[in-house]
Amino acid sequence: MNLEGMRVMGVDPGLTRCGLSVVQAGRGRAVVPVAVGVVRTPSDAELTERLLRISRSVGEWMDDYRPDVMAIERLFERGTVSTVIHTAHAVGVIMLAAAERGVPVYHYTPSEVKKAVSGNGRADKKQMTSMITRILGLAEPPKPADAADALALAVCHCWRAPLIARASQLGAAGHTTNFVSSAHH
Amino acid sequence: MNLEGMRVMGVDPGLTRCGLSVVQAGRGRAVVPVAVGVVRTPSDAELTERLLRISRSVGEWMDDYRPDVMAIERLFERGTVSTVIHTAHAVGVIMLAAAERGVPVYHYTPSEVKKAVSGNGRADKKQMTSMITRILGLAEPPKPADAADALALAVCHCWRAPLIARASQLGAAGHTTNFVSSAHH
């Protein structure tokens, strides 16, 4: 189960600001930063135009950096419903960009990301930024917050991926056992 | 302000069933049906795969029928949040398909559609289906409900479009007046 070299694209989704990052898994728990940035769309533009810009930017990033997998924040009921709906529109086009390129998508809640990266599911922004800066060996803390969140999502997936791979291997082994045992009946 | 011949694509969005329709505006309030159908995606498929299928189906419909405009149901807080989020993902990829083809998108609430089509914002499914069947001169009522809703959205836009066009002309005239008057100062 060697995941060394796996490239992960982290996405902190939003219509006004969408954080994007790419990292690469190194040896053991080492993670190497590749790229980080924020796509912005003007709030006075048409919704269709904003979705088109996000779709194109995410598509360009995927074509440039060729990630093996995408890690994106899982949406849940917080803030106003209209904000959640707008963010969900953006998530739809971002997931579509991944699907069109055959890239699998994993979802993580903010507390899963905090727990994975800092060991504390309730870590604050400052603690998270400090951890991400140290883990990735960055010269200075990533800015703005959306960029730091996108990096944290990608690091979270790098560290969760071995567990996911092991669980799915166990799942596959279980299925095989069932098949063999039913063949004996 | 002649909108005769305008083709409208109506969309009743959903991840499991997405109603699609195309109608064409005729003389006065006449509306001619062109196509109606439902795109289904299996609930046990990956979310990315489902969004990809919806995106491709909507894209194929748009390329086949070349609508001038899209009318889609406006989402609002009803049902469970997770259903709204899933539907909003679908709406995101549907709006993107329109944006990629330069097709403007208009949103209508269910009560706006009911009011426009039947004169009653609280009309029930049966009344709406009966009105749509009569307006479009269909041999039998459209099925399933998602298909009928998609037709109702398209008819709603056909009848609202002249008002929208008039309002935007008045808006433009207002701007011109302001410009002229400020040029005189």
TrEMBL record, chains A, B:
It is an enzyme of class 3 (hydrolase). Its cofactor is Mg(2+). Gene3D superfamilies: Ribonuclease H-like superfamily/Ribonuclease H. PROSITE patterns: RUVC. SUPFAM superfamilies: Ribonuclease H-like. The active site is at residues 12, 73, 146. PANTHER family: CROSSOVER JUNCTION ENDODEOXYRIBONUCLEASE RUVC. NCBIfam families: PRK00039.2-1, ruvC. Belongs to the RuvC family. This is Crossover junction endodeoxyribonuclease RuvC. It comes from Corynebacterium tapiri.
